[in-house]
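subagent[fold] <- orchestrator: predict structure for attached chain, return tokens only, no commentary.
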Amino acid sequence: MALTLAEAAKLSNDIVLQGVIETIVLDSPILQALPFIEITGNGLTYNRENTNPAATFFNVGDTWTEATPTFSQITATLSIVGGDADIDNFLLTTRSNVQDLQAAIIRLKAKAVQQKFEDTFVNGDTAIDAKSFDGIDKLTTGGQIATMGANGATMTLAKLDEVIDLVKGGPPAMLLMSKRSRRTLNNLARTTGSFLQTDRNEFGQMVQFYDGVPIGVSDYISDTKTVGTSTDCSTVYAMQMGEGAFAGLTAPGGLQVETIGSLETKDATRTRVKWYVSTALFNTIKVAKLIGVRP
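subagent[fold] -> orchestrator:
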């Protein structure tokens, strides 16, 4: 069963881990919504659906024709992301509240892990960094790409509707865009005499919706991509999430906080934050992107 990171944290008895997960989830719309499938082993081999089978009408006595879907066999390998947080033993001894100091150091390291994951979720490319995993930008290809034109253009609501419609089998679970693109969308909504819907999510945060689809904002979506002669372009992503669509993969236990202990080479205590993680796109029609979005 696929669970979001926040849901998985509720099943853990580790108070430190629960706090770490709460910290990183609050700042990431991706981690708030993306469900993770727990797998045993270092990877998952699955069949990615490329095309659906065809069906037709027949008369009595007609010869029936066979049509089957096409698949690509994909292997998603778990990547290791994390880092060590060293806390000076002098500070541990002299500070009046050791718990607060440790929590602050671990929280900062967990934030770094979250930021690295989110960057890779968007821009990951194993051809550039073989230790990482492929992100949504690389995984979205072919007919799932809408464009603002040969040299890009300012976003329109019609083009945003187009990229939403490219996602088949139901509406997207999220529209993911840069802060600049969200400003453009807000301006478009005001110009047309309407406003984006807003509501609170389960974390108490205000979330905007376009046509019922939640809007997520990521600092790792570039506003300086090149499309044709323009070098100030951004991308908007639409995606369904979950098993059979776009999901995260994680080793048993998910994100882990591990106490390494005292170090030999310096007077410090080390804590390691690590995550064996990847993503899996089970069906190519579950994601789409709009490229060439200019200011």
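orchestrator: received. Logging for downstream: The chain has eight helices and 17 strands. The domain at 138-241+285-294 is CATH 3.30.2320 (hypothetical protein PF0899 fold).
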